[in-house]
Amino acid sequence: MNNSLAEVHPELVSEWSEKNLTLTPDDITFGSNKKVWWRGACGHEWQARNVGNRYRK
To answer: For residues 41-52, b (16+ Cβ closer than 10 Å) or e, as one string?
Structure first.
């Protein structure tokens, strides 16, 4: 089983920023503490760690 962000939460792939250069959602595991760039629907970009935090309630 693949635990990559692209496999676990494919809906986030569209928010993946080009600022991540060669890093892709297939390279990051869900819950990773790696800091990556995101781009929202309005075009705003930000850096965040721990992808899993986006889904905690």
So the answer is: eeeeeeeeeebe
